[in-house]
Amino acid sequence: MKQANIRNFSIIAHIDHGKSTLADRIMEQTHTVSERDTKAQLLDDMAVEQAHGITVKSRTVRNHYEADDGQTYEYNFIDTPGHVDFSYEVSKSLAASDGAILLVDATQGVQAQTVANLRLAQQNHLVIIPVINKVDSDAADVPRTEAQIQKLDPAFENLEMLKISAKTGMGVHEVLEAIRTTIPAPTGDKTAPLKALVFDYMYDAFKGIIAYVRLIDGSIKADDALLLMAEQTKVSANSLGYFAPNMTPIGELNAGDVGYVITGLKDPQLVRVGDTMTAVANPTTEPLAGYEPAKSMVFAGFYPKDNNYNELKLAIEKLSLNDSSFHYSLENSEALGAGFRCGFLGMLHLQIIRERLQDEYGLEVLTTAPNVTYHVHLNGQTEPMIVNNPINFPEFSKIEYVEEPFVKAEITTPNELLSDVMKLAEKHKSTLLDMDNQADLIVLTYKMPTSEVAYEFFNQLKSVSHGYATLDTTALDYEVADLVKVEVDINYATVDALSFVVHRQDADKLTQELVKKLKVAVPRRLYPTPVQAVVEGKAVARVDIPPLRKNAAVSGGKKSISKKQALLRRQGVNKRQSAKNSIDLPQAVFNAVLELD
Ligand code: GDP
Ligand code: MG
C-alpha cells in the first residue's frame, strides 16, 4: 500500500459511548469481518474485559477501505482502553495514531472522560473528528450534545458534526470518508534507517514475545536483525504481519504501517513498551521520545495459594510484559513465605490483574492490604527510608517523622451532583484548589493524600455520582503526615502479612471495625483464639474467636473412620505447633483488612 493511502487512527470516548460498537461496524463495512462473524464487541475478547465490559489492552486492526474516490485505503484502527485507571494505555495507543474519532453519546452528552481523552489526543498532536453517536435513541439530545462539543475546542465551533448510530450503522460510511479526507497520511521515509515505536507487547506461549509496532521510518522484512534500543536487545524478525483482526503474516512492514513482529525472545525482562526498534545493519541515531514509565500508586502483596510459587512467578512476569504499568518485586512474609510486592495504577488495576491471573493462568493469589509508598525519616538519618511494604515499616521509637505522597485530583461532575461529590471529597482529607467549568460540567481540583484516592475513593465517587463523575489524578510531592502501623496478632503471634499503615486519626475506628470482621473471618479452632490490633506496642482493639463447638471425634457420623482420624491427626499437629504456623489464613482474613473504609 502506498503511504498516501494509509490512515492510522483511534477512537476515543467516555465509557459506554459506543466505541466498541463503532469498531465492529467499521470492520464490517470494510469487510475485515463478515457480518455473520460479528459477535458483539469483537475486540474485547479477554475474559476480564467481558466481565467488566471494558477494553483493557489496546488492539490494532488493519482494514481495507474502498473509498468513494475509487481508491483503496489501509485503515489501521488502534483501539484504546476506555477506563480512567488506564489513561496510561490510552496515551500509548494515541502515540501510534495520526488522528482520532472523538465519539460522544447523544443521550449523555460530553462526559468527564470525553474531556480527559480529548486532552490526551491533543497532547499527541492528533487530528480530531468529533462524532455524535446514538442518534437513533429516543433519549438522544443532539443539539445539546453538539453545543457541548463546540465548547471543547475553538476548532469545533463552526463544524458541521457527523451524527451516527453505531448500532444501526447509519452514518458510519460518512465517518469512513471523513477519516480519509481529514486525517493525514503518515509522512515517514521508507528508505531512512528503521525507526519503529513499540507501543505494546504480548506474550505467546509458543511464539514468545510479540511486539506491536508503528513504523515511523524505514522498513522491516522477515529475518531482519533488529535492535531494541532501550536495553540494546538484539532480536530477529521471525515473522511479521498485521491484525485483521487475527494475526495475518506479511513479508514486509514499511514506514507508516502498524503491525506486529514476532521476536522469538522469551525473557520479558529484556523488552519495554515505548522502546524504539531499529535495524542492526543500519541503525537510527536518535531513538523516539518513548513514554514516561507509569508510576505505581498502590502496592499490595500477592502470595501463592497452593504452593505454586514458580507458576505464579512466571505468570506475573508475563503479565508485567503485557501490561507495562504493572510492576513487581520479590518479597517475603513470615506467615506466608515467598511472594511478590506488586505495584498498580489503582485498585481497579489490582483487581484486573488478580482476575487475569485466575482467568488466564488458573492461579489464585492471596492479596494483602493495599498501601502507598512512604518516606520514613529515622532518628539521626539524613536520607529517608522508602517503604512500600508495611512489613518493613520501622518500629515507632526509631521514627522521627513520616511523609506520604499527595495527588492533584481533578473530578469532573455534572452540576446537579456537585454537593454530593464535594461532601465525599471532604471526607477524604482533601483541600479544594480550584473549581472550573467544561461544557456543562464542573471540574473540581483537590489536593489529597494518594492513599485516600487510591483505595475506595474511586468506587465511592462512582457510586455517589451514579457513574457520572470521573477522576483524573496527577502525582504531587510528599508531605509530612501522622501515620501509624497497625499490626495484627492472632493467638499472641503477629501475622506480618496483615500489617497496614493508616492515619493516626483513623486508627481507632479502623481497628475496631477490623477485629469485628476478623471475628467472623479467622477460622475457629478447638480453643478460643484472641485476636488483637496493636498500634505502637499497645493493643487497641481485641476480640476472642470462640472455639469450635465440637471436634471431629464427636461430630456427625457421615465421615469415614480414616477421614476422622486424619482430621484428628491434623488437629493434634496444630496444637503442638507454634501459634504462628498453625494459623490457616484464608483470603477472607485479608479481605477484612482490604475492605476497611
Ligand atoms: P464502549 O464502552 O464505548 O466500547 O461502548 P459499547 O460499544 O460497548 O456500547 C455501550 C452500549 O451502548 C451498548 O449496549 C451498545 O449496544 C450501545 N450502543 C452503542 N452504539 C449505539 C447506538 O448508536 N445507538 C444505541 N441506541 N445504542 C448504542
Ligand atoms: Mg468497549
Task: Spell out the key features of this protein.
binds magnesium ion, 14 helices, binds guanosine-5'-diphosphate, 8-stranded antiparallel β-sheet, 26% helix, single chain, 597 residues, 6-stranded mixed β-sheet, alpha+beta
Question: What does it look like?
Answer:
It is a single chain. The longest helix has 18 residues, at 504-521. Mean pLDDT is 85; it is low at 51-58 and 572-582. With 597 residues, the protein is an alpha+beta fold. Helix content is 26%, strand content 33%. Strand 2 (60-66) and strand 3 (72-78) form a beta hairpin. The strands form six sheets. It has an eight-stranded antiparallel sheet with strand order 11-10-16-7-8-15-12-13. A six-stranded mixed sheet has the order 2-3-1-4-5-6, with helices on both faces. Bound molecules: guanosine-5'-diphosphate (GDP) and magnesium ion (MG). Its EC number is 3.6.5.n1. GTP binds at residues 16-21, 133-136. It is found in: Cell membrane.
Compute the CA-based radius of gyration: 27 Å
Judging from the principal axes of the Cα atoms, what is the shape? globular
Overall average pLDDT: 85
Spatial separation of the terminal alpha carbons: 56 Å
**Oligomeric category:** single chain
Strand order of the largest sheet: 11-10-16-7-8-15-12-13
What low-confidence regions span 5 or more consecutive residues with pLDDT below 50? 51-58, 572-582
- Class inferred from helices and paired strands: alpha+beta
Number of helices: 14
Query: Per DSSP, what share of the residues sits in E-state strands of 2 or more residues?
Result: 25-35%
**Count of individual beta strands:** 31
Helix content: 25-40%
